[in-house]
Specification:
Shape: elongated
Radius of gyration: 24 Å
Number of strands: 9
Helix content: 40-55%
Strand order of the largest sheet: 3-2-4-7-8
Length: 372
């Protein structure tokens, strides 16, 4: 279906007069050209206006369609590739500031003196050389990160995956030893800081979480467990693990920081902290108290067939009731409200023809093979 035809059908479906249609399509056209049409979850030949028509058509009344459209018009936030790359570019100063704070604490001096103190400058240089940057997901854009900081960090300090083979460990430590010798730094050839880099967290559970069994899980725990395996130890004694996300919800930022402190009690060998390039506002979250009409609609038009073992139940506000109205260009997070990304699954045991049909505006690419 061509975009022009889809626009005519959208206008007819929404009962827009010429004045309203002109106003809305002016905005929609700009947003589709700049953001929405670039969503990577669309299949070939399908773009935003076709999905908009299908999405609005699932709502049975004019009032419901207006409420759904208001979600798109007023609340949805889409992060484009260039905007995400900007957040990647902001990571360096954020991580650098965290390092300076650590050096200030080590030296027992105020933060601002780290720029003038010779001992602090030398310690910071040592810390920079003994830092390893690790991408913990394919969304970490670790290649973009490396290119942004070319000349400031070595290629041998950046690796694209959290599982590091024995051969790679030896190679990393061998090159670290050469860098330290070249810089005239007398220090153990092991990494004192590890920066685990990821793109987005909506709840924090993918980074670090404690299971009902009492065991710790998530990317941080798996990385630490992996480092403890094998003969070659990457990390120095008392090393620090910095978990950095380019983007996080306010709830996730709090959860990650809090759970890392709890995990540190379990793993006293290392210290842990979290940083973020940007944290979304609490005001961005959709809640029943702030958006009663929208919340009513999301709940009423919910189909349990979209639930999986990974998402849990009652995810009309998204995974862990995230309530986010957010889209990432490469995928829609499942922490966002379900109407934006979820599609009725006729193969689910929970499917019923009596349930409301769900058709996504930004179809989500499922990470787990068993739910694709």
């Amino acid at each position: 279906m061509k975009a022009d035809q889809a626009k005519r059908l959208v206008s007819r479906l929404m009962n827009w007069d010429d004045e309203r249609a002109t106003q809305e399509f002016a905005w929609l056209g700009i947003m589709a050209g700049y953001k929405f049409d670039h969503y990577q979850g669309y299949s070939a030949g399908h773009r935003f206006f076709v999905h908009l028509l299908q999405w609005l058509s699932q709502y049975p009344t004019q009032e419901d369609r207006e409420t759904a459209y208001d979600l798109l018009r007023r609340l949805v936030v889409m992060i484009t590739q260039s905007e995400m790359h900007h957040l990647v570019n902001l990571s360096g100063p954020v991580i650098e500031r965290s390092m300076r704070k650590a050096v200030a604490a080590m030296q027992g001096i105020p933060f601002y003196e780290t720029y003038d103190s010779e001992a602090a400058v030398q310690r910071l240089q040592q810390l920079r050389e003994r830092t390893l940057y690790v991408g913990v997901s394919d969304g970490a854009r670790i290649d973009v990160f490396r290119r942004f900081y070319e000349g400031r960090i070595s290629n041998e300090q950046v690796i694209p995956m959290a599982e590091i083979s024995e051969t790679k460990r030896k190679d990393l430590l061998g090159k670290l030893s050469k860098r330290l010798a070249k810089a005239g730094i007398e220090a153990e050839a092991k990494f004192e800081w590890i920066c685990l880099i990821d793109d987005f967290t909506g709840s924090g559970t993918s980074s670090i979480r404690k299971e009902e069994s009492g065991e710790w899980d998530g990317k941080v725990a798996k990385f630490i467990n992996g480092c403890n395996e094998g003969q070659t130890q990457l990390l120095s004694k008392g090393s620090h693990v910095l978990v950095h996300h380019y983007l996080a919800s306010a709830e996730a930022a709090g959860n990650v920081s809090s759970d890392l402190q709890k995990y540190q009690i379990h793993n006293a060998v290392h210290t842990f902290s979290a940083t973020f390039s940007h944290v979304l506002r609490d005001a961005d979250v959709i809640a029943a108290s702030s958006e009663p009409e929208l919340s009513r609609l999301l709940h009423a038009r919910y189909d349990p067939s979209i639930e999986t073992d990974h998402t849990g139940k009652d995810i009309w506000l998204g995974f862990k009731e995230g309530g986010l109205p957010m889209i990432l260009e490469h995928n829609c997070p499942n922490n966002s409200v379900a109407t934006l990304w979820a599609r009725t699954n006729p193969n689910s045991k929970k499917y019923s023809p009596d349930n409301p049909l769900m058709s996504p505006l930004f179809p989500r690419r499922q990470r787990h093979l068993d739910v694709r």
